[in-house]
Design a protein that fits this description.
Radius of gyration: 15 Å
Oligomer: single chain
Number of helices: 1
Order of helices and strands: EEEEEEHEEEEE
Distance between the termini: 47 Å
Largest sheet: 7 strands, mixed, barrel
């Protein structure tokens, strides 16, 4: 399947790499299908990857594995909200957080409050609000002075 992307041009992608978000993402509810793209093909997982909408070229969000930012990241969410993902085991879950990279790069932040949770087995995803009081919408990657 060919998809047109914001940063990588047109790419040929296996349909098995599409993640379906039944409710879309906050603020982008009408866009349901995404894939995860990497800047490099190296073995090492990059810090940032891209959540690219498969139906709207201009929708591409930088995402980060939250454990690279906060090693004890463990969002508390209602089990009920996870039902749309289908059956899953611990190894099936992929958790990502959206990043914001402004022109002043030192103000780059990630949203620990609203993680993306993906079931790799069913290729379904959901964006949830974590109940953890100490998780911020703007968690800065660098100390702010």
């Amino acid at each position: 399947m060919l998809i047109d992307t914001r940063y990588f041009g047109e790419i040929d992608m296996d349909e098995k790499k599409i993640v379906h978000f039944e409710n879309g993402l906050f603020g982008f509810e009408e866009y349901k299908d995404y894939t995860i793209l990497y800047d490099s093909e190296s073995e090492k997982e990059p810090f940032f990857s891209w959540l690219q909408c498969t139906t709207e070229k201009s929708l591409a969000f930088p995402v980060v594995n939250p454990l690279k930012v906060k090693s004890d990241y463990d969002p508390v969410v209602e089990d009920e909200l996870m039902k749309s993902l289908g059956e899953f085991g611990e190894d099936d879950l992929v958790v990502l957080v959206l990043a914001t990279i402004p022109p002043e790069v030192q103000k780059t932040s990630v949203n620990l409050k609203a993680p993306l949770i993906i079931n790799a087995g069913t290729r379904k995803g959901v964006q949830l609000v974590a109940e953890n009081q100490d998780y911020e919408i703007k968690h800065y990657l660098m100390a702010q002075h």
